[in-house]
Amino acid sequence: MVEVNLWSGLRALADGKDKVEIEATTVGEVLSGLVKAHPGLQDAIDAGVSVAVDGRVIASSLTEPVAPDSEVFLMQRLKGG
Amino acid sequence: MSKIHVTTTVNGDEVEFLCDPRETVLDVLRDRLGMTGTKEGCGTGDCGACSITLDGRLVCSCLVLGVEAEGREIATVEGIATGEDLHPLQQKFIEYAALQCGICTPGILVATKALLEKNPDPTETEVRYWLAGNLCRCTGYDKIIRAVMDTAADMREAS
Amino acid sequence: MALDNTKSTGFTHVGTTPDRPDGVDKVTGRARFGADITAPGMLHAAIVRSPHAHARIKRIDTSKAEALAGVKGVVTRADFATGLTGENWNILENVMAGDTALYDGHAVAAVAATSSLIARDAAKLVVVEYEPLPHVTDVDKAMAADAPVIREGAADTSVPKGLHPNVVRYHESGHGDVEAGFAEADLVVEDHFKTEATHQGYIEPHACLGTLGGDGKGELWCCTQGHWNVQKICAALLGLETANLRVTASEIGGGFGGKTAVFIEPVALALARKTNKPVKLVMPRADVFKATGPTASTSMDIKIGMKKDGTITAAQGTFRLQGGAFPGAPCEFTAMCAFAPYALKNVRQVGYDVMSNRPKQAAYRAPGSPMAAFAVESVIDELCNRLDLDPIETRLKNASKKGTKASFGPTFDRIGLVETLEAAKAHPHYCAPLKPGQGRGISCGFWFNHGGETAVSLALSEDGTAQLAVGTPDIGGSRASMALMAAEELGIPYENIRVTIADTATLGYNEVSHGSRVTYASGLATIQAARDAVKKLCGRAAAKWGIPEDAVKWENGCAVPSGPNAGDFDPLPIAEITKRMGATGGPIVGHFEATPEGAGVSFATHIVDAEVDPETGKTSVVRYTVVQDAGKAIHPTYVEGQFQGGAAQGIGWALNEEYIYGEDGRLQNALFLDYRIPVASDLPMIDTVIVEVPNPGHPYGVRGVGETSICPPLAAIANAVSAAAGVRLRQLPMSPPRILEALEQQRNG
Amino acid sequence: MQYHTPASFEDAAAIAAQADGVTRFLAGGTDVLVQLRADIVTPDTLIDIKGITGTRDIARNPDGSWQIGIAVSGAEMTEHPALGRDWPGVVEATDLIGSTQVQGRCTMVGNLCNGSPAADAVPAMVAAGITVTVTGPDGTRDVAVEDIPTGPGKTSLAKGELISAVHIPARGDHGGDAYLRFIPRTEMDIAVVGAAVNLRLEGDTITEARVSLGAVAPTVLLVQEAADAIIGTTLDDAALAALAQAARDACKPIDDKRGTIKFRTHVVGVLAQRAAKIAYERAQKAGK
Q1: Measured between CB atoms, which of C29, C33, C641 is closest to B100?
Q2: Is 0.90 exceeded by the ipTM?
Q3: b/e string for B96-105 if b means 16 or more Cβ within 10 A?
Q4: Number of domains in chain C
Q5: Is A25 on the interface with C (CB under 8 A)?
Q6: Smallest Cα distance from D5 to chain B, Å
Q7: What are C459-477's pLDDT values in tens digits?
Q8: 0.80 surpassed by pTM
Q9: Which backbone phi and psi does C397 adopt, to 5 degrees?
Q10: In the structure, do chain A and chain C come into contact, i.e. share 3 or more CB pairs under 8 Å?
Q11: Which CATH number applies to B88-158?
């Protein structure tokens, strides 16, 4: 299981939780697992999220690996000027 | 709308064109003569990207009507280099990275060439004020000013 | 991705400063920018724009315009795709208004004619009947209960109940217990800040030339930061198959984020489709200000607690961003960047994205971060002043470093904030004497940086030179950086590499040139593509020598046996291999198609000296130093240029630039005359220090540098003004009337 | 748009008198072309007057007064050392109009006829006591500069009338002038406030003065009270304070995108003082 940290604005959509345990080995599985566990997160994830894995911000790739002991944070999707 | 026939000189070559009296020299250069080196940044004389010289005098080509060019001499960025040989300012601008996007560069080169012809030994402040009408959004001007000062020094030494 | 084979020293090409490959084109007028593209038989277009801040469009009568000699076609919203949703709908609504004009300058129709003068005349003949509606342009007023609603139902699920419908997105993050943290503090400072919208201010107006036949096949040339994005959006807005629209990026005359968005390209294509002729569309400068993306304006509340020794005990920020008549103001970035420089036990940040009757905001260099830095770094300066602490030492004491839990959540890997602070402290500027009336300010700044989808191709020529095709428009000399990295890997001269910005038909999808991603992501892609080509070169040598492929290595542009056991062969130069490549297996091309995900964050520390005229309130910037972490500077001169350019834009934002709206909701300063960007005589030389703390996510350690440089100046100047004049300005721009007002209030106690 | 290039001011006046619709005279064009481009004013008739003989000349009369051609550009004035020695304030004020590029084209008369209260050259012209010759269908008349503008964008010139010559008085002994403006940047802005002072000394005492203020009222102001505040003084602190007060009392500014009433009212006093000090110093050095 991977512990996924949500930004606190998402708590309302995840039954009040800001940490969710997900069975996942990739970023894509993290996201699909989150939606499965908390369907309310679908819109926020569709709007675009990045996933920080051990401090590295994954903006798009769903194939990036995630280990059980990885530090995983959901973040709003990054872009720039 | 009736057009007016104009004969003028651009970078030493005589050219003729027909233009609407509302067209500017900038419009004429770009749209009628195909000389797109002179850029339009604002059309109102605030940015200097369209700088040319008219009878040797630095002006914004967006603030001169095409019909006013009759019998005058125009010089643009396309006339700065001699054949394949770049003007020292052009060389120095590349070397010093005095341009990033390059849209203001033609106007700045025309303006600085006019400056150095008038004042071969300008101070940094003189260069900055001379170029105040040439907006650059990329560089913060630092490398432009250095390139101009250094070119001036080189040209003084060479002359 | 795995980054084995990283390299941080022993470079041959990287770190040198050769002339850029496109230099001669750009100093001779030969380079072709957006408005320089022409096609035989092309028409010229002009756009009709709303003079109202908010109005229902009751009727559009194009008959008089169509009757004018030379007019070939007029388009309105009816000429675009229907049934769009999400951001595509937002973009279409912005590109061409539907039933409501949402801001002064909103496009409502467009005309194509045989000359630009006729097009302009015809645009004036389009009759639009409006029913003006109540409007709002200020962020705080747009959130108030009595504010006119820009559009019902625009809010997403993130917005808590009970907020005004103009609040369309909401962000909240942080950790710890801020109230407990404030209780531990010796001093808590809480202040309110406001910043006005500023424009990216690129000197080249948006311009494009489009063709689109009845067969649904089109071509588009335009100045953009990302032509694949233009392709995708135009196809959606016009109902085309994406692959049938080929987009070529011209040279680009500045973007700074503002040319990541699409404004006029679909209009030119719609007119081309209607007239069956190529249509050229160039935006007048006033339209650029009125209808292309300024940044968001903000209203912010910051509260920070500090102990007497300088330790920050808690920090809290509320950031309200107005982003025009559409969702998208980067409130989450403002919030997440705000406290990123500091290691905080207790931190909480809240962001609101608010709609108003202004143009749709677009990204501007580190979107959202400069405003946050202005507010936060001003409060930290105030705390340092009141607790008599050195501003750099205090920042060092709290600085984020590897292993710090970032204010936005994750744990930082290797970062260079401490190194920039140490370099600033050691810089002669920091201890140079000041003249009377002058003050010194410092500030830190942070930006995430970005990787993004990237495809490059590196094709070798028979003579051993290389053609590198990249998909990220070159906005500041990136061709040179790409060529340096390719030269480094291939071991051939820099001059032997020709870098082209390829069109959408030539490479796979490339994300726009944004997020400071070009040198990082296209650079990484270039290195990997070169390594791919080198692997193939080694394979050809191995075949020739009859030894295994892994017994060949690449050195100084030659294939050589990897060791004494591999055999005794003379080095085989690249040109010897490429000369025969047709007969030894075919063309040799290196590829990279992936999404690099290791963009390293970047920090900066700026030092500025400002002088304030107490009689007029006028501020002069007299000395400026930028210290920033570049990870690894590929072309150091161009890195310096990014530092200087960001600082200059920040100076403009701090002192003079602003969107000024009248009571009627119309923009009052849509010219460079009154939208006052810094001119040459406004600025001093801008000193730079390149700090290099390698990014573990790039083979050479590169971190993007384009954006972070605009984050610190706003606060650094506010802090310098505070030191010079003894008054703290909490609203931007710090215009002379505001400074004079502050001085008077101070005199009156 | 009809474009004309008359050979004389009389012809120009005749064309203008007979023209229908909007007529504009073109010399430097730095306002006319901006207004054309920005769709503010599209003239039906445009009369280019710089082909008229003498319009590019700067001439010093035997009595020390000057005649300036109506198409003389700001750059040409700046490059004329003798003119700059006599009337540094007038030359510097004209030099402040726009960029180097604009200087290559802009004229004092254009600056005057554009009718902007913020025009940089005009306060200096008023303070210097410059007059202009107006040519119209019925002949010519001489008019003081301060009587030309009547409001923002408006002048006292009748249909068919145009300015055909500029007369600067002889500098005379122990005189000096100066013009200062406030802008937020260092260049390229429209004046938020402008102040010009022209004065003459006998010994250290000011015997004559004219003070003119820009951008603080619908037209450029000639403020007698401000002049009175320094006449008879050695520009001591009390005189300077009185000058600033008189300037502030005289101005009737507006709040707009470039400045506030409060700011303009305060800064006009500051600039009047600073300009007066420069003019005073110049007069002291002028000698004769």
Answers
A1: C641
A2: yes
A3: bbbbbbbbbb
A4: 3
A5: no
A6: 10
A7: 999 999 999 999 999 998 9
A8: yes
A9: -60, -35
A10: yes
A11: 1.10.150.120
